[in-house]
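Possible regression after last week's pipeline update?

I re-ran a chain I had predicted before the update to compare outputs. Posting the input and the new output here so someone can diff against the archived version. Not blocking, just want to make sure nothing changed silently.
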Amino acid sequence: MSIKVKSIVFSIIWTLVILVFPITSGVIASIFKFNDIEIFLLQGSFMLLSLIVPFIYIIVKKYSLNEFGMRSIECGSLKKVLFLIPLLLILLPRLVVGVSIESVQYVFALLFFTIFVGISEELYFRGVILRLIKNSYESIFSVVLIPAIVFGLGHGASIIGTGNAYTTVLQIINAFFFGVVAVETLMIIKSIYPLMIFHFLYNFINHISAAEGKTEVICVIVQVLITVITSLVLFVIIRKDNSSNSEKI
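New output (post-update):
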């Protein structure tokens, strides 16, 4: 088996590992008929537990945290932080529609859930899995595309059966392009921490959005379009940066 094939196989294995936690918590919540607040607390706890696996992996393999993007944005790189601004545009469609908050308890439970989903998914997909692909592929296109496909398929497996087929397909596409933008952003700013924050905000706002039915479908479509445009812009920037670095060498 070639190194490239191995990296993809291990990427799928890591995706299956993280899926165990939301699926297991979902089954438990279904059996005991938990309410929304209880579900958020349970699933947030399971996503917190999921962090144990990659950290054990890092410790056992004696890897540096820097290899997984766990480092601060380089000092004096204010210009790089500006590349995070397009990410905020992806949040706008849901915010324009408005928000719906049930209670203070609901908000705190949702915060707990979305914070640890953001941290864990970024560590798995833009930390461990991206590192596997980067060490096996030289092409920027492959490094961006493969982790995004794995991320999209992983989300597809977790949301199938939670809504109508049309919305589910849109969410998978949205997850794919979210993955593309996340990888590209990480390649520019070199730090996974801003992505964890953005991922948390993205999930939190999606949950409190008042969008329902056709309005929700429209929101998802607009989010996909904004994400696609952002991904293209970031890809051009990365290609230019790589070309400039090659010329200097």
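Follow-up from reviewer: compared with the archived run. The chain has a mean pLDDT of 88. Marking as no regression found.
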